[in-house]
Amino acid sequence: MSEEREDAMAMAKRLMRPELAKRFYKSADIQPAEAGYAVVLDGRGVRTPGRNPVVTPWESLSQALAAEWNAQVDVINPSTMPLSRIVNSAIDGVARDSGAVRAEVVKYSGSDLICYRAEGPERLVARQAEAWDPILSWAERQLGSRFVLAQGVVFISQPPETSAAMDRALADLDTFRLAAVNVVTTLTGSALIALALLHGHLTLAEAWGAAHVDEDWNNELWGADEEAEVRRARRFEELRAAGSILQMGSREAATA
What we know:
Keywords: Chaperone, Transit peptide. The chain is α+β, with helices and mostly antiparallel strands. The protein has helices at 3-16, 59-71, 82-94, 98-109, 122-143, 160-170, 175-188, 191-198, 204-211, 213-222, 226-255, and strands spanning 21-22, 28-33, 36-41, 44-45, 55-56, 75-76, 116-117, 150-151.
């Protein structure tokens, strides 16, 4: 590729990036609010993109959000605020239609990553079994229902009672944990990994490793792509944020 073409592409990428807003506040903090704890900038309440107040029921979560705002330097960069993005989606979206979000997670469980196994080579088959079988066994005990496994990419339907059990497992989740479960499910391709992380059956590292068995196998064979590794690191930060919400919510539920 010529130097001129590289320069043109770099310029095009810069022009496509949205201009970031400058930091306009001295400090972020939290204040008690009717529904919990509000995030404030110089005493004024933060609002979501949907113009709803950023208020969470947990002091720890609101403090973490305020920390993200305080970490901004010259400009406000949403890509460095994964907790805020999840909370915004919870307030603007999940709170409005939690049933639809729950249904999306249940739909993922109908074609869950850990239910689709490779036909070969043997080492990959063994590695999938080592990472995924314990999660599957735990989920089946937790839900009181069994999942059907498949080899290859041919779609298989899970029993209706299994999907119903998954729906029941999510029914009592608050808005913020449901939003976090949805994020984990999307990032990992597995509602069962998300459920295991929710209940503390998996650590964050274990959940991430289970989600990338196939990718890690290919990287070992062919080498990792630099851009793909950058994207993977960003996705992990999203997972870390979602996992922290699940942990906070579990602590709050345990002390309620």
